[in-house]
Design goal:
heterodimer, A: mainly beta, six-stranded mixed β-sheet, globular, B: mainly beta, four-stranded antiparallel β-sheet, 11 strands
Chain lengths: ~120, ~110
């Protein structure tokens, strides 16, 4: 079974609009972390935002926020005021368990295209 | 601060040749990870180290792949002999290792095996 599911292969958004990239996860572990990474066409993987399973509030980092709905096991990324430079692949990832277990499992990614 | 450093950035080799990929993690990070990214399989964890010791190598595809971490500032991923299906982008990442800590990725090595 897929641990991380990203159902949107591609998304389009106009500059300055907000966009939500979907991510659902599957785990029975009460302790886990959720991450979003951005991969532009140049290829590097850039960390965007982190949400811990015990965090009471949704994570925010500048224009990025994470809509964490624990009961639904979803961790959607919201990008506000999209910019042309936001065009990239976006990956959701999960790390399960305690500090001794460091394995990250990635989703298949969503390609975001921001148009002028 | 320097991020994760990988070399070479690009490698083209012929089938059967030995390939060695190198990684220098962020100073002070005690976890190091090797990932492979392909169109067909996405991002896969190959192996990771904690304090230079391999912890989980269940993602290493076969015996042709080996990884070492002789010290805290250097790791290698070796493929011998290489095959065309090994063509991929190989990423190295490092982290402090706490649950909340992020894995920071290097720029990747784009490998093409002809």
């Amino acid at each position: 079974a897929q641990k991380i599911t990203q159902t949107q292969p591609g998304m389009f958004v106009q500059e300055k609009e907000a966009v939500t990239l979907d991510c659902t996860y599957d785990t029975s572990d009460p302790s886990y972390g959720l991450f979003w990474y951005k991969q532009p066409s140049s290829g590097e993987m850039i960390f965007l935002i982190y949400q811990g399973s015990y965090d009471q509030q949704n994570a925010t980092e500048g224009r990025y926020s994470l809509n964490f709905q624990k009961a639904r096991k979803s961790a959607n990324l919201v990008i506000s005021a999209s910019q042309l430079g936001d065009s990239a692949m976006y990956f959701c990832a999960m790390r399960e368990g305690n500090t001794g277990f460091q394995k990250l499992v990635f989703g298949t990614g969503t390609r975001l295209l921001v148009s002028p | 601060d320097a991020g994760v450093i990988q070399s070479p950035r690009h490698e083209v080799t012929e089938m059967g040749q030995e390939v060695t990929l190198r990684c220098k993690p962020i100073s002070g990070h005690d976890y190091l990870f090797w990932y492979r990214q392909t169109m067909m399989r996405g991002l896969e964890l190959l192996i990771y180290f904690n304090n230079n010791v391999p912890i989980d190598d269940s993602g290493m595809p076969e015996d042709r792949f080996s990884a070492k971490m002789p010290n805290a500032s250097f790791s290698t991923l070796k493929i011998q002999p290489s095959e065309p299906r090994d063509s991929a982008v190989y990423f190295c990442a490092s982290s402090l290792g706490l649950l909340q800590e992020t894995q920071y990725f290097g720029p990747g090595t784009r490998l093409l095996v002809l």
